[in-house]
Amino acid sequence: MSHPFLSDAAVGFLPSPVRDVWELSMQPGMVSLAGGNPDLRLSDTGWMAEAAARAITDQGDEVLQYGSGTGFAALREAVVEVMSAEGVSASTDSIQVTAGSQLALDLITKLLFARGDTILAEGPTYVGALGVFGGAGVRVEHVEMDDDGLQPDALRETIDRLAGQGRRPRALYTIPNFHNPTGVSLAAGRRAEIVDICRAAGIPIIEDNPYGLLSFGEYDVPSLHSLDPELVIYLGSFSKILAPGLRVGWACAPTWLRRPLQLASESAVICASVLSQELARSFVAGGRWRDTVSAAAAEYARRAEALNGTLRPLLPAGAELTTPAGGFFSWLTLPEGWSSAGLLDHAVDEQVVFVPGASFYADDDGERQFRLAYSLENPLRLDEGARRLGRALASYGSA
Ligand code: PMP
């Protein structure tokens, strides 16, 4: 889409594939495995209306006013508490509150990259990150992952290959826990190696961790940030553990990034919604948040099992399905020669939708793959969705 009034940058922004499939998923009777939305019923938001009314009545001068550019002080303290549950020790000074972690990613991209620069990211990666990088004219080089996450050898080879072309990546973007879209986590044993490789190559890391607390069992792996707080920028969010509509996320920034990030954020939005920040603060201060999040994670675990447990025996020979240990997603790779976009037509006939894999790559990969989101439907519907997908696979395979 070009127009004489539009700049070159305007063509870099792409429509969200999840939103494209959204229309289909709204059709009556459809089982949607498309959107990665949290189920708000699991967030226990019943207290929120009263808390909002109370905040406006008692602290209206604060919560309806412009607020601090770095974030509401009491919320930054609450973020430090959430991060400690995520296994990261951080100081309040390091926290920049943003309107969702999406904005943090956008601002950091502006601060680290010029148009034409290169970023490394897992292949596949988060579509919303691809949107940010595309809009900023940043070239994405995918690094291969396997069932243990990003592969250190592939990272090394990619950096060397790019060096041969005179290109030094300006950052690595990674989602080490319960990755979107694959559901895979980075093995504990690979973490220090990945940080070491990046440090040696002079490449900062953007560690995006919106799903870290939604683990299905014991989960005790070091964050990349804890391995090198001056190299790793950490992104967190209340979207998956409380409510994405509040638009409250954060970056935990190395010292060199704090001031530029604050100024960039002030220039973009002045401050994040103070009322939303107060509600996120109340969620943490209420003290029950850990139980709420654990109960939500246990329900997401049941949903993952309902979908993947039913689907697995229905898969054709040669197909591979990931086994997530947390988060919202699993990822299916179809046999050689199959197409997930082609399968989607059969799936829609069976009244089930998913997001085809090509959307999660900046290059031409992902043709045989697709993402399954189990976060929003209940286990019975997911079981039914898996059966429908099984029928779609059978009809596509015999067509
Ligand atoms: N990173 C990842 C990996 C995500 O999945 C999402 C949301 N889908 C975001 C960032 C953005 O989250 P927020 O709502 O905090 O902007």
Automatic annotation (TrEMBL):
Xref: InterPro entries: Aminotransferase_I/II_large, Class-I_PLP-dep_aminotransf, PyrdxlP-dep_Trfase, PyrdxlP-dep_Trfase_major, PyrdxlP-dep_Trfase_small
Pfam family, one: Aminotran_1_2
Highest taxon above the source species: Bacteria
Limits of the Aminotransferase class I/classII large domain: 31-379
Keyword Transferase found: yes
Keyword set, alphabetical order: Aminotransferase, Pyridoxal phosphate, Transferase
Keyword DNA damage: no
Cofactor: pyridoxal 5'-phosphate
Segments passing through the bilayer: none
Name the UniProt record assigns to this protein: GntR family transcriptional regulator
Species of provenance: Zhihengliuella salsuginis
Gene name per UniProt: avtA
